[in-house]
Design brief:
By secondary structure, the protein is mostly helical. Among the domains are: 97-200, no CATH class; 263-297. 55% of the residues lie in helices and 1% in strands. It has 12 helices and 2 strands; from the N terminus they run ααβααβαααααααα. It has helices spanning 2-45, 60-81, 117-124, 144-153, 159-166, 170-189, 193-200, 222-231, 241-248, 263-272, 277-284, 288-297; strands at 97-98, 156-157. α3 (117-124) packs antiparallel against α6, α4 (144-153) crosses α6 and α5 (159-166) crosses α6 (170-189). The N and C termini lie far apart (140 Å).
């Protein structure tokens, strides 16, 4: 009984599957027919194609006119949308500046020529970058050491020589060339006498100091000057002048004595009075190590 039931259930299911497939095939056939009808109607609505041998051709004049129109439109578009490059000013790279200070600025072993520092520092602090300070810009001064290096080493200052000497780019080296050209004429006017002699061989003509006495004190007369010289004489009541000179020649001259001041003076006085180091520490608050160092180092030089 169970076998007959299973067989009938299988036959029913198989029949249902066949029925579904037939219905599906029928629906697909209808859809395909509908699509073919739409395509046919669309094709029939299009105009008939023009044969290639009967298509109208453009004349050379029309082609040239079209090309001109397209070229003008392209040029107008490029003019509106292309940024024009900024024109950089032309600089003379071959400009040379004669430097009379080459080899003279550091001949005395000094790192900086003190007589020219006001000029060099003032020119180095100029605005070399043309930027607005406080509005996102900054203007840094040039290096004083590099300006002196250029003035001391290059007899002929050019942009290429400064680039090679300082290892700078063309634009930044041009700033140092300009700074050197500003320094040279001012430095020539304020050269010290020894440098003027070294560079040009001009002897220094010493002139007496001239000043105007603005005080109301009268000049001493001959009698007053004679009395002053008499008061400054060497007294010879107990010995002659030669004997005094012989005695005083044994004493060292230009003696410098370190005189303690402040708390050190108090400590040194207490040591001279014979107080112990611990007692001085309690009274003054100075450490014993400092007191001993002051005691050992205090001596006339």
């Amino acid at each position: 009984m169970s076998t007959t039931t299973s067989q009938s259930h299988y036959d029913t299911k198989h029949a249902a599957n066949i029925a579904f497939k037939i219905a599906d095939n029928a629906a697909c056939a209808k859809e395909r027919a509908a699509l073919k009808a739409v395509a046919k109607s669309a094709t029939e609505s299009l105009p008939a194609p023009i044969p290639a041998h009967t298509a109208p051709m453009m004349t050379p004049a029309e082609i040239k006119a079209m090309s001109d129109r397209m070229g003008k439109r392209a040029d107008a578009w490029l003019a509106r949308n292309t940024k024009k490059p900024k024109e950089k000013p032309l600089h003379d790279q071959s400009k040379a500046i004669l430097n009379p200070f080459a080899g003279y600025l550091k001949q005395l072993g000094q790192e900086y020529p003190h007589w020219a520092m006001d000029i060099i520092e003032g020119i180095a602090r100029l605005d070399w970058h043309n930027r607005d300070i406080g509005v996102g810009g900054v203007s840094k001064q040039l290096s004083i050491r590099k300006i002196i290096h250029v003035l001391d080493w290059l007899p002929v200052i050019t942009n290429a020589a400064v680039e090679e000497l300082l290892g700078l780019g063309e634009r930044h080296a041009r700033r140092y060339v300009k700074a050197a050209s500003l320094c040279i004429p001012h430095m020539l006017k304020c050269r010290p006498d020894w440098l003027l002699f070294e560079m040009d061989g001009v002897e220094y003509q010493r002139k007496p100091h001239e000043w105007e006495d603005m005080s109301d004190i009268p000049a001493p007369d001959a009698e007053t000057l004679a009395k002053l010289h008499h008061d400054m004489r060497t007294f010879t009541e107990y010995a002659t002048e030669e004997e005094y000179d012989k005695v005083w020649s044994n004493f060292p001259r230009n003696v410098i004595v370190n005189i303690p001041t402040g708390k050190k003076a108090i400590v040194m006085q207490m040591l001279a009075d014979g107080k112990a180091v611990k007692a001085i520490v309690r009274e003054t608050g100075v450490t014993a190590q400092t007191i001993r160092r002051w005691r050992d180092s205090y001596a006339p030089v």
